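Usage

Read records sequentially. Each one opens with the input sequence:
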Amino acid sequence: MDENSLNEKSGLVFQQVLSRTTIVNIPKPPVVTPVGNGVLLDIEGTYYILSAGHLMNITDFPNLMIPGVNNSMTLCNGKLITSHQNYGDKSQIDIAVFEFTNRQNKHLIGRYNFISPSDIGIEHRTVETSSYIIGGYPLNNIIKALGQPMFTAEPLQVVTATVRNRTYKKFGFNPETHILVKLYGRIKPFLSSRKTRLKKLTGISGSGLWYVPNWRDIDANGVPKHLLVGILTDNFIDQGFVAAVRIDFATEMMIHNLEINAKESQQTNFGLHLKQVYSMEIP
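and closes with the structure output:
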């Protein structure tokens, strides 16, 4: 595929990815402090956020907010299942699933699009020659409005690939639990012919890692099929990569803790790798 075609098709993917990504915040009146990202999911009219456990932890949960309709902020009222009790917990499986109460729907509909279960790829086998998408809002690309709980956010949009298998062992990652993809200090931005130096990324955690099986497999709108296969958690940009927890852990949380009827993943041993799961509900 030529570069122009890749730019066009990846641009369509980015539009969809970013419309399904939110920014998680903690209030500090009269402003809010963004802490990371999350991916929005719709299962038969019930809405969820899939994010990193250290962002959506039990201690901070009562104050967590996301942007809503009409330039408002809405609290995350509902049920949280997370790997982290506190922000600084050391669980390497860093994942959270949040289920909104139905009364929060009016704050979401019209602001966001949502992925569906068919957009999630469990039991993903990484292929070094395949394409992956990173799309989210790094905190150092967010500009706050003075004295108001609003901000503008410049997205990070990267087409990348997996690292070599030896990188997992070198940095202590298990390919059964994580997916590592390349991200360097210098990248070529979308629709640009020149590379630019990235600012030190902060707050990209909680963004989705998306897999594009085949750029020629497109829907009626010309958008290539892309699947959510992980949630970004760790930034190793100085070593040339970022790490994502496999999305299988989020789907297992939904099956075991939110009673979602779905096929269990055979890729990961949920009980072996994630020994402690915390939950809290705010009606």
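Summary fields computed downstream for this record:
- The longest helix spans residues 3-19.
- The helical segments are 3-19, 165-170, 248-257, 270-273.
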